[in-house]
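Saturday, quiet lab. Running sequence design on the structure tokens for the scaffold JK sent over.
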């Protein structure tokens, strides 16, 4: 299970994308700026083995939260939900 303490704070995410993986599931958190609206935190998951840029958009699942500590905590919860709800997908990806 992913834990909040293992993720980067807002100040890091202001400048850099944070990526990681967990048993076949890759993920990232990054700042998402949309014209005319608040800055958001984008959280994305996709199967191994490829990185974010080498994976097609069809294989990615994404959601956005507020760009603050609460948004990061909700993002970590969502990542854990994605891992549990798509366990077979991640297991197949890790066997490649």
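Result came back. Writing it out in full:
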């Amino acid at each position: 299970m992913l834990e909040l303490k293992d993720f980067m704070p807002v100040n890091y995410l202001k400048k850099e994308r944070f990526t990681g993986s967990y048993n076949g599931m890759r993920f990232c958190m990054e700042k998402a700026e949309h014209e005319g609206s608040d800055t958001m935190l984008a959280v994305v998951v996709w199967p191994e083995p490829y990185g974010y840029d080498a994976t097609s958009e069809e294989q990615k699942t994404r959601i956005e939260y507020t760009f603050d500590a609460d948004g990061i905590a909700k993002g970590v919860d969502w990542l854990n939900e994605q891992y549990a709800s798509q366990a077979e997908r991640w297991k197949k990806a890790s066997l490649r």
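Notes for JK: DSSP finds three helices and four strands in the chain. The mean pLDDT is 95. Ask whether to fix the surface positions before the next round.
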